[in-house]
Amino acid sequence: MLSHNNYFDGAVQSVGFERNGRRSSVGVIDTGSFHFGTEAAERMTVISGELWIEGAEGQWRHYPAGTSFEVAANSGFDVRADSPAAYLCEYL
What we know:
single chain; mainly beta; Jelly Rolls; 6-stranded antiparallel sheet; 4-stranded antiparallel sheet; globular
């Protein structure tokens, strides 16, 4: 079963799904800066474009297409996209 998620007045949209007992979502982040909270640990892989992520240490890091980063459960992160970018989020 698919679920559609819409955040920040449509600037971030994703489609969630489950396969072999593992939850994931794929989505697009439009130009802008956003904050996401996490309940579960996540691995985010940039599929197209590039993202800037501000981690717990307070530094912005660049993630071009093909790279990934992990976020701890019950935490959060700030993301910035200078142009639309696509991602895969795997819930760990």
